[in-house]
Amino acid sequence: MGNLFIQFSCRCWRQWFVVLVVLLVSSELLTGSAGTEERTQPVKIGVLTGSWGPTPEVVGLRDGLLELGYRENEQFVLGVRFTQGDLTALPAAARELVQYGVDIIVADYNHPAKAAQMATSQIPIVFIGDSDPVGLGLIQSFARPGGNITGMTCLYLELSPKRLEVFREIVPDLKRVLYLYAAVDAVAVAQARAYREAARDLRIELVEKPVRTEEEAQATLAQISKGTVDGILVRSAVSLNIPGFVQEATSHQAIPTMWDVSFYVERGALASYGPELHEMGRQAARLVDKIIKGANPAEIPVEVSPKVEFVINLKVAKALGLTIAPEVLYRADRIIR
How far lies 246's CA from each of 234, 252, 270, 334, in Å? Predict the structure, then answer.
């Protein structure tokens, strides 16, 4: 009989996107269900993501399980299926995890969660990071999710107006801001509405650019230069590889960017205001723990991640010629120097 193996390695994607690649290479089924009984084999946790590898949420999940006392490769193993920004590949990737016989599926963001939901009504699903799980049809309510799914949600959408306000505090001359997003991303579309209202109140011109292909995203950014916009708002969801294209383009054009997560700030973006992804993953480990111990995901309340962080890359600010007010720096949760 074969076993389920985990292989860890690091690679740099386009010199800035560094991920931990985890490959699920076996399809052996475990005997028995996830419960409190003695196990002879580790719990197989299949992770579904549209990214290029395990995201900070997934790393946080692993760390959280270790903190709870689980021994990796003895009591649990993680296998990641990632689709490199291709949302159309997610349903097939979700079905692969089901065919491999994983005991639990963990999905980050809304598209992977929907793909997992469509692939199985039996295997427990834990989502991490969805902004509107009720509106997306993932759950019936936060208190009683129903079905085979529960998870951790965050405040991407609700924090949008404050994010734009903070962006202007960092860049006082911010008058024209680009928001490039995938037209098929329901949360991004809702976020555009929130940014639109906030921009009107702040007397900022929001340049909305919904795109449907990677080529369209690249072409849009090719037309943007310093002077045509004063900054770019970026959603971190990897749909159409928009984050990668923005990071690549702005590194050459010296345009300030504001993100909803700190991952990109740590890799050369200016600032972020949003949920702390690693912490969300750690919190999701508690939900996985409950399922392993026999709890029904339909009855595990969906939790809202409370931790919001404001991060500034001071080195990037100096390179852009920005002098950030001391009171703004004081409010930052983290300053990267």
Answer: 8, 10, 12, 22
Q: Which residues pair with 20 in a beta bridge?
A: 10
Give Cβ neighbours of residue 220 (< 8 Å, ≥ 6 apart).
Answer: 180, 209, 211
d(CA 132, CA 157): 8
Whole-angstrom distance, CA of residue 277 vs CA of residue 210:
25
Q: Is 101 helix (H, G, I), strand (E, B) or coil?
A: coil
337: three-class secondary structure by DSSP:
coil
pLDDT value for 260: 93
Contacts of 332 (CB under 8 A, 6+ apart): 310, 311, 312
> C-alpha angle 323/329/331, rounded to 5°?
150
pTM: 0.83
> Are 46 and 53 in contact, with CB atoms under 8 Å apart?
no
CB 119 within 8 A of CB 95: yes
3-class DSSP assignment, residue 2: coil
Q: Which residues of the chain are under the pLDDT cut of 70? A: 1-39
